[in-house]
Design brief:
Elements lengths: L2 E3 L11 E3 L14 E3 L24 E3 L12 E7 L8 E6 L4 E5 L9 E2 L12 E3 L8 E3 L1 E2 L6 E3 L7 E7 L2 E5 L5 E5 L3 E4 L15 H6 L54 E3 L4
Antiparallel strand pairs: 1-2, 3-4, 5-6, 5-8, 6-7, 9-16, 10-13, 10-16, 11-12, 13-14, 14-15, 15-17
InterPro entries: NA-bd_OB-fold, Rib_uL2_dom2, Ribosomal_uL2, Ribosomal_uL2_bac/org-type, Ribosomal_uL2_C, Ribosomal_uL2_dom3, Ribosomal_uL2_RNA-bd_dom, Translation_prot_SH3-like_sf
Keywords: Ribonucleoprotein, Ribosomal protein, RNA-binding, rRNA-binding
GO molecular function: rRNA binding; structural constituent of ribosome; transferase activity
Length: 274
């Protein structure tokens, strides 16, 4: 994977850094795995705007991803690595021996023609999905379930990975991408390897219009608002906003919002580092 810095033949390209897309093998998605994706523009069912800074953007179709990897002990062949407009990671089209096709999140190093599978008895190789109880300690993993059979919910973004660091009874200890260390049931599934497209963090959009293509509308700075609109608004001249906080008055930059009585707190051994 690589990135390309464009020649500044226009002002919008002066600082633009784009993905090289070296890993992508085709630009035609599998039609049977496409679903429509409707835009809301931030409006609810009565047409009222309930979320700001949303709207516009290029039309997309959803790629149906297999996050559960519940086709056990059946070998699949990677047919192609594709771009997905709905996520930062690349996706892989895999075909099973019985003819079924699925999209999965592509791991770093996954190649066309490679055979992958999921189950208890498979080898801990890149792209294979296994229960956490069967994965060797110290292994780099991604696409982790939080509850058995739920499907992957953790470490799915481009370049992210977690590490399996300990095993104790029915729980395993996992170091998350955020540096949080938490317990996960050992019967949950995870995929071997880090998520693809690790260079995503190096990209630079180059111009405001590109954000509009992604469906993001402009955001007004809180310090430019009136006191009625935001706690950080108001003041004579270019007054700073005071203590940083949200529109609802909740402090930002270090204030902990997680409930102290949340039942799942007992599974977090060490909170993420600031």
């Amino acid at each position: 994977m690589s990135v390309r810095k464009l020649k500044p033949i226009t002002p919008g390209q002066r600082f633009r850094v784009v993905n090289g897309f070296d890993a992508i093998t085709t630009d035609k998605p599998e039609k049977s795995l496409l679903a429509p994706l409707k835009k809301s523009g931030g409006r609810n069912n009565s047409g009222k705007m309930t979320m700001r800074q949303k709207g516009g953007g290029h039309k997309r179709r959803y790629r149906v991803i297999d996050f559960k990897r519940d086709k056990q002990d059946v070998t699949a062949v990677v047919k192609s690595i594709q771009y997905d407009p709905n996520r930062t990671a690349f996706i892989a089209l895999v075909e099973y021996g019985d003819g079924d096709k699925n999209y999965i999140i592509a791991q770093n190093g996954l190649e066309v023609g490679q055979e992958i599978s999921s189950g208890k008895s498979v080898a801990p190789e890149i792209g294979n999905a296994m229960p956490l109880s069967e994965i060797p300690l110290g292994t780099i993993i991604s696409c982790i379930e939080l509850r058995p059979g739920q499907g992957a919910v953790m470490a799915r973004s481009a370049g992210t990975f977690a590490q399996l660091i300990a095993r104790d009874g029915k729980f395993v200890t996992v170091k998350m991408p955020s540096s949080e260390i938490r317990l996960v049931l050992s019967t949950c599934m995870a995929t071997i390897g880090a998520v693809s497209n690790s260079d995503h963090q190096l990209l630079v959009s180059g111009k405001a219009g590109r954000s509009r293509w992604l469906g993001r509308r402009p955001r007004t700075r809180p310090v430019a608002m009136n006191p009625v609109d935001h706690p950080m608004g108001g003041g004579e001249g270019r007054a700073s906003g005071g203590h940083p906080r949200s529109r609802n008055g909740i402090p930002a930059k270090g204030y902990r919002t997680r409930s102290r009585t949340k039942k799942t707190n007992k599974y977090i051994l060490e909170r993420r580092k600031k």
